[in-house]
Amino acid sequence: MFACDAKKLRDAWKRRETEIVGIDAVPFNRFAIQFTAHSILRELNKAFVGFYGDGQPPEHLSAIATGNWGCGAFGGDKELKSLLQLMAAAEANRDVAYFTFSDRVFMQELHRVYVELITAKCDVGRLFQLIGQYADEEVRSTAGDPNLSLFEFISQQLAEEVDGE
């Protein structure tokens, strides 16, 4: 997730091989709106289309350098947006270099959840289900003021699945 081979990032003239893709961000003036099925699918599909390598073999594609897309002024939830980007990148067969812009706590939390997802062998489909479950159980049932963050909820669900085995 966080590593890439810099030697592969040069073309025949030794220039860095880069491609810049702009993905529009939707402003979310209420926390709960971004957790609707429509919003989740829209953001996931936009990220996938932006990350898709036009059919090139994955070994010929550079890592996606991304960050807190749609957060900040647009009001997006960093936890949701980071997971949607990781899901889209996984489906597009792309590595990710995720930049948290000096937010050390978020960096550690994202890495912790990523390790938990990998350890649990959680695929994109299961993560999509967990996000939907969080939306139902934590966001909608509390009128948009959840008791747990998305990362906390996912960690809790994965731990319960391990304990149940």
Task: Looking at this protein, list some descriptive labels.
single chain; 165 residues; mainly alpha; two-stranded parallel sheet; 5 helices; 4% strand
Shape: globular
Overall pLDDT level: 91
* Total beta strand runs: 2
**Cα-based radius of gyration, to the nearest Å:** 17 Å
The residue fraction in helices comes out at: 40-55%
Q: Name the poorly predicted regions.
A: none
Largest sheet: 2 strands, parallel
SS strand fraction? under 5%
* Number of discrete helical segments: 5
Could you spell the SSE succession in H and E letters? HEHEHHH
How many domains?
Answer: 1
Structural class: mainly alpha
Q: What is the rounded distance between the termini? A: 27 Å
Describe the strand arrangement of the main beta sheet, using strand numbers: 1-2
Pfam family, one: PARG_cat_C
Protein name: Poly(ADP-ribose) glycohydrolase
GO molecular function: poly(ADP-ribose) glycohydrolase activity
Domain PARG catalytic Macro: 7-106
